Amino acid sequence: MSVEKVKKFFAELGEPEKVVEFNESTATSEEAASVLNCEVGRIAKTISVFADKKPILILLGGDMKLDNKKFKAQFGTRPKMIPIEEVENFIGHAVGGVCPFAVNDGVKIFLDESLKRFDFIYPAAGSSNSIVKINLIELEKYIKSAGWVDVAKLKT
What pTM value is reported for the model? Predict the structure, then answer.
């Protein structure tokens, strides 16, 4: 199970308490915000897309969505969503638990500027009922970030 990979990832970093599991679903930004009693923007939504036929992850605020124009300006191509049934194979986590921790080798992870509004955020932790509370300094330290991008816009 994917959450076990994430728990192992944090245990190896000496932070086994980072992963928190709930009885309720945290699979969507709105569900996670409700369970955590926080604003939706603090939930770090992890989007799985192809850019030039290569799988990448983009973390953005839960109140945001990808902006196709900004994405194309940044990556030189339009984003193509990875089909739901293929996400786990390409990324290492199933939809609902996709996160930037313990992903498959070769998957580039980008952080959207929309996350910089917050002192800490809540990405998923590999399952549809788990999260990690993390600040941006820790996030950058623990994952192999490919850098910061500006590819999101507010959901309307």
Answer: 0.95
